[in-house]
Amino acid sequence: MTTFVLDRHGWLKPGAGLQRAPSPNFDARPAGAEPSLLVLHNISLPPGVFGGTEIVDLFLNRLDYSSHPWLERLRGLTVSAHFLVRRDGEVVQFVSTDQRAWHAGVSQFEGRQRCNDFSIGIELEGTDELDYADEQYASLKRLTQALKHQYPLRAVRGHEHIAPGRKTDPGPCFDWNRYGRENGWFRRQMPPLS
């Protein structure tokens, strides 16, 4: 399996298992803000449904809200993440890692507000109640290694850790021990585990 490599503009270089779908939902990071935090999320649209176009369509502002009753609640939402890792391990990139994706919302980490300013967001296709696929951990490893090579990432958290009480993802089914071990994170760089 080939490694992922970011180009000088913050995009993964083309390769197998990669798709680029540029989202309009981003802006510039504040001056001097370099990514130092990796944030993991989960998403499925509609909830619990995998493999469709809805996630990509949401991030590209072209979601057909009438295709499922649950989707209507997302109308008017303008969000994105830097990456999506699908159940089969395919990676979709929406925003350059040099830019600010709109993934964290109201959030804070170590006293700093607005985590979008200094983080990179990765969505995992999944739910809080379902184990993630081995293919996702494999792609997440390749992606994490590329990001750690390019940026001074000093911590990784779930959305639940930077927006407690508001968010619950990636949820209890994400194997933080496995992810930390496979990616060389020190215990202090990861969320506290119970």
From TrEMBL:
Q: What is its EC number?
A: 3.5.1.28
Q: Where in the cell is it found?
A: Cytoplasm
Keywords, A to Z, come to: Cell wall biogenesis/degradation, Cytoplasm, Hydrolase, Metal-binding, Zinc
Q: What class of enzyme is it?
A: hydrolase
User: Which cofactors are named for this entry?
Assistant: Zn(2+)
Which GO-annotated molecular functions does the record name?
metal ion binding; N-acetylmuramoyl-L-alanine amidase activity
Q: Name one GO cellular component term.
A: cytoplasm
Please identify the protein, giving its name as recorded.
Answer: 1,6-anhydro-N-acetylmuramyl-L-alanine amidase AmpD
PANTHER family per the UniProt record, alphabetical? 1,6-ANHYDRO-N-ACETYLMURAMYL-L-ALANINE AMIDASE AMPD, N-ACETYLMURAMOYL-L-ALANINE AMIDASE AMID
Q: Which organism is it from?
A: Pusillimonas noertemannii
